[in-house]
Amino acid sequence: GGSAALFGMSSGAVLALAAAAGGLAITRLALYEPPFIVDDTRPPLPADYLTQLDELIARGRRDDAVELFMTAAVGVPAEFAAPMRRAPEWSGFTAVAHTLRYDGAIMGSTMSGAPLPTERWAAVTIPTLVLDGGASAYWTRNGVRALTDVLPAAQRRTLDGQDHAVAPAVLAPVLTGFFAG
User: Which terminal residue of the chain, N or C, has fewer Cβ atoms less than 10 Å from its own Cβ?
Assistant: First the structure.
């Protein structure tokens, strides 16, 4: 029972959108950089991306699954993948590699380079703040712009100097102000 204000970041923003579209009692929605690929400013995900992830995980090739996610979904250049595998953080990524399929499933076709499916979020009429970073990649900012255009009660705000790894000290006051509104 009750209601809530909801914040989601990256693919979590798409999950938050799905919750709002599903009719949950959400009063306000804030979304930071849902990773939509809506044009040709970066390559889309391969059509068989989820199949590739499933096969790699089923074969126990967790390192390769994470590398596929990093290169195909996140957009990390392939030549950076080998050095990333040697980083101390890599073991944390491989520990949750089996969850990458869920990330891909919630994204659906929104990383295909096609316009966003307007009917998917037509029921989201609550006040929504769609945020991006001023230092983020063009494709990310284009996706944020496209989502803002799709949602009837959305406003867009760009956080100067921020990228996908937004600083909590910059983000928190913006969310606090929006949710108090």
Answer: N
